[in-house]
Every structure is written in structure tokens, then in C-alpha cells.
Amino acid sequence: MPMSSGSGDKQDMHDQTGCFDPNTMDEGIENSQKDYNTNNNNINLEEDFKPSVEEELSYHNPQHLEDVSTYTNGFTPSPIDIEQQNLGLNIGGSYNNSSNNDMDNHLANEVYQNSTWDPSVQDMDYINHQEHHQLSEQQYQQFVETQNHNQSYNPSSILDPSYSSPDLLNLLRLPRCSASSLLTTPSNICLTNPTQKAPNFHSSMSFLGDLPIGSSDNTSGSSVLYDPLFPLNLPPQPPALRELFQSLPNGYSMPTSSRNGSLFGGGDEMEGDGDMGVLEFNRVTASVGKGRGKATKHFATEKQRREQLNGKYKILRSLIPNPTKVDRASVVGDAIEYIRELIRTVNELKLLVEKKRHGRDMCKRLKTEDDAAESCNIKPFGDPDGNIRTSWLQRKSKDSEVDVRIIDDDVTIKLFQRRKVNCLLFVSKVLDELQLELHHVAGGHVGEYCSFLFNSKVTEGSSVYASAIANRVIDVLDTQYAAGVPHTSRL
Amino acid sequence: MEQENYNRLNVSLDELGFNSENVSKTWKKRKEYYNEDGIRVFTAKNLGAERRRREKHISRLYILRSLIPNITKMTKDSVITDAITYTKRLQYEVDTLTQELHALEEKENLEERAEPKIAEYSAAEDLNNWGIQEEVQVENIGENKLWIKIIIEKNTGRFMKLMETMNSLGIEIIEANVTTIKGAYLIVTSIKGISFDVHQAKHLLADIIKSI
Prior knowledge:
The complex is a heterodimer. Chain A is α+β, with helices and mostly antiparallel strands. Among the domains of chain A are: 299-366, MYOD Basic-Helix-Loop-Helix Domain, subunit B, CATH 4.10.280; 391-483, Alpha-Beta Plaits, CATH 3.30.70. Helices cover 51% and strands 9% of the residues of chain A. Chain A has a five-stranded antiparallel β-sheet. In chain A, strand 1 and strand 2 form a beta hairpin. The radius of gyration of chain A is 36 Å and the shape is flat. By secondary structure, chain B is α+β, with helices and mostly antiparallel strands. Helix content of chain B is 56%, strand content 22%. Chain B has helices at 2-16, 20-29, 47-67, 76-114, 123-130, 158-168, 198-211, and strands spanning 30-34, 40-44, 135-142, 145-153, 172-181, 184-192. In chain B, the strands form two sheets. In chain B, strands 3-4-6-5 form a four-stranded antiparallel β-sheet. In chain B, a hairpin with a 2-residue loop joins strand 5 and strand 6. In chain B, helix 3 crosses helix 4. Chains A and B meet through helix 12, helix 15, helix 16, helix 17 and helix 18 of A and helix 1, helix 2, strand 2, helix 3 and helix 4 of B. Chain A: Pfam families: HLH. Chain A: This is Transcription factor bHLH91-like protein.
């Protein structure tokens, strides 16, 4: 197995932990590109990304290049190249394969058929799931590409630095390790059950970063995954791929039969990330391992999605005046009340504006006919469209509560204040300023609180509206409360 | 088993949906154990309360969704998103309408000044027509507490002035009851804070009324 000159870099990169540096990845792809060119393969990164699974799988079979070559265009990668290639698959390396389409469709059919797998194999341990979803990643890539044939797949979006995350890299690392340790015979078609794979995979995991060229004894299990004759296999790949299909975008129906389906009930919704393929995949992988502990579910995008949702709750809370509690349910409750109040206010204002306009028009019209002074006095009885202006507002502050109700001309203000401040005086001042005629007042001081009710009428021609009243009253109460000291008896 | 799975499902949903502020609280309530399959699961100690809280939250989300005119997706996230946009839109509408109203009002004020003012309602006329007399009545209702009844002619701002004056004298109003009829204010209050006797208070109030 010839090791390319650029393999050293890739080796270094493999040893990196955590940070996914797209630049080095690019470099790595360039290096492997050289390799491919030396192997007389035309690999063009600019072309659309359409790998065939056979090709992908063949990348993981360094030992059997003769067989591999029967499926590909004589491509002979090194193990590192394979891993590189695998990574390259995910970040947009493209491959030129004439037999692409045929294989794609064939694989697509196979993959689609396998969606009715037995869900009982969902309960496997973590590593098996990693294994599975690695395969499913390839399959999914394949599937996405075949189905979204004309869809522009932008590989460069993955290279966006803001996109990458350590979790994703960790996911991708696994196949590298396992691929390098895989030694399969293409003819080795084995339908092993998942549990059997576990020890194999474990041993393959131990080869982290190694470049095993010699044979190892972990053949049977891995071969199911990376067998170039995959389309002919029907390996039990239950949960991951089911979730895959359940979370597919673009009009595919979402079977919510499984629990994961409901977990990602809004699966077609993309949370602000343009790259559909890998993002969907990550959401699938988040669902894989359901029933596990907390650690396995927290992949990068799931956390992002949660954080975005929390951010939205915060934004909603910031829009609401006087939010009381921080928890989500009360934010929603406050939002409900606030939206209702806003709708009422908008209606009231619209009505007022209409009235004003109509009143002025009437005034002008009547002026031409009758005496100017008298006619402007006349207010149209009711609105032209028969609506009575109604409004209801509540405002709460730390120590005061104000409730303003308006029906046509009558304004009813109820206030409730915690401390004894001379509220009667201040509120009556405000009412005068707002041109509200006082008709009735009732209230008094009860212990520490004072509670009052004001019935007033809007002066003709004044277009004061509910929120203005409420805001003024509560401002006055608050400022007086802050600044004022209750008058002590001096006499 | 089914119930357990259901609980597990709900708990796992909740896990993913936890508010960061609540996380610490709720993690404490969780206990981790291994069920018969040897799988680590989480349950909450107080499952009933958790469920109720969740249902309350979800039902409120439904109400929110019903308020918002255009909903495209029925997911939890999109409800919040749509709520945010709708709230902002409504706020914007309120602002524009308010400005419009103010503009109209300004115009009207300018126009009105050019015209003769409407004849003001004459309260004094009404008082005379109906035979209502201005009066002040004071009674003692306890130590330092007085009960006052005042009938005065209703003019704009008069009540406010009365209040102001009384306040400046240090009179505290315990309770107040005011009503208007036919051009007169009927003011009934209980006050405290002045150590006058009944007659003195009566004179004081009469002076006040004359001054306002």
C-alpha cells in the first residue's frame, strides 16, 4: 500500500483532538487529490458531490485493491487516504465516477427498502451506534444526493468555520480509525447481528490513529459495514436509518411511529443552518441512542437548537413589559396577555383615528351649511361603522397596579397601591392634565394599601387613549412613591 | 413497560427542552437508575408535578398559537418565533397609530384656535336651576378623625385644587367618595390629621372652598 507524501499531514491531523480546522482539511484534500491524480483518477473538487457507496466502501478496504478496482476506476487509496477521503466526503470532496448514477439508484433502492428494520436492535451500546450512524452517514449522503439530484449541494458550506464543531469531528474520527483497521474480503458477505459487531468494533477502536496494513482478526463484523458488496447485503441497521428517513427533508413524509419520530417531530425544520445534509444527519445521530443516558444525546446541533430556543424565549420576554417570572410557561402566559392587549390597543387607536378624521370632515361639511360654532360642537352619534370604542388595559409596577377601562367616553380607572402615598391628589392631577372630567371617585386607605376607583368622562374632542392614561397614572404613582414621604400631621 | 417507556419519553423530551435557568433545579429532582435492560434512564422524583407543568406550558403555547394570525409550522419553536414577529409588528402598529393620532390632534388644535370656542357648560346656572346649595358639614367620628361632607359647584379642576389644599395642610384622607350631579360635586370624606374640633374644621373648610 503506497503511502502518499501528504499522508504525514493527514496523520497529524488525525491526531488532533477536538478542533476541526477546515483549512487543514482543505489541504488534506488537496494532498489526497494529488494522490488520486497520480493514480490516474480525475477528481475534481468543483464537481458535484456524488459518491457511490461502493467507492466509499472501497476506500475502507485497503487490502483488497484488486477487488476494489473492479468497482471503481482503478482507484488505489491508502488507509489514510481512505480516512481522509471519508472526511472529504463529509466536507465536500467530490469524486468522479462514471458508474455513479447506476450505483446510486441501486443503493438508494436498497437503502430505502431497509427502512423497515426491526427497532428492537435499538438497544445497543454507544459504540455500536457510532458504528451504525457512521454507515448511515454514508448512506444518507448517498441518499440525499440521489434524491436531490438537481439540488445544489454546496460543499463549501461545511467549510464555514462557524459550522464546525468538535462533536462532529469526533463522529468523523471514528470511521477513520475503524476504516484503517478494517480488512475485509469483498466476498465476505455476512449478516452479523449487531451485538456481534461490538467486540470487533471495540478492537478497531483501539487502533485509533494507527495504520494497520497487516491483517487483523476483526473481519467479520466490520465487513458488514464497509463491504463493497453492500448493496447486496441486508445488514440490520435499524434505528439510525429509520431516524434518517424520519428526518428527511423536502417533502418526505415523516413517519412518527417511533419514539424518535416524535422527538424530532418538527424534523423538516432547519434551524438556521443552510447545510441540510450534515445537519440532518446530526439530528439523526442525536436521536440514535435514545433511551441512553444524557451524554449520548447531546450532539452539537441539538445543543444549538436548544440554545436557539432559549434565546427566543428571552427575546419574547424582553418584548413584554413587566415580566414577572423567568420560566417558560409564564413567559408564554405574559406574552398571551400582552398580545391581547396590543390587539385591543391597535383597535382602539384605529377607531380614534377614524373618529378624528370623520369628526373633522363632518365639521368641515357642516361649516359650509350652518353656523360654524354650533356645528363643530356636534359629535356624530356613534361611529359611522357602529363601533363603540372599547379598551382595557392593566399595568403593574412594583408597588402599584392600574386598571383602565374605556367604553366609548367613559373611563374607569382602578388603582391599587401598596404604600400609603397621597395617591388621590396625584391621580386627580393627572386626570386634569389628560382632560378627563371627574364624575365619581370612591376609595380609601386600608392598612398599608390604598385603593381607588375613578369614573370619568373624556372631554369632547380629546383623543386620549387607554395606554396613555395607564402609563401616566402609573408613572405618577411610581415617582411619587419613590420620591414622596407620606405627609405627617403637622397641626 | 409501556408506562415506563412513556415516562422515559416524556422525560427525555423534557431534558432536551429544559430552560437553562431551570436546569439546576430539575436535575436535582432527577434520579438515575438502571432499568432491567441495564440502560441508564432518568426519571423525575415528582413525575406528576413535572407532567402538570409541561401540560400547562403546552396548553399556553396552544393559546399563543391561536392568537397569532399566520402560522406556518406547528412546532413549538415556530410558535415562539411567530409570536415574536407578531408582537413586534403590533408594537410597530401601535407606534405609528399613536403618531398619527398626535399629528391629527395637533392639526385640530391649530384649527380650533382659529375658531370661536364652544360655549362652556355653566355649572352655576345648573345649581341655581336645581336649588342646590353649597354646604359644608363636619362630624367627629373618633379621636382625631372627622367626617366631612361638601357640596360645591362643579368646575374644572376644582376637586384637584381642593385636594391640593387639604394636602398642604397636612390633612390625610382616609377614605373618599365623590360624585357629581347637575353641576355640583358631592364630596364625602373621612379625614384625619388635624386636631381641630368640629366648628374650627368647618370654618377652615369654608375658607378653603372660597379660595379654590
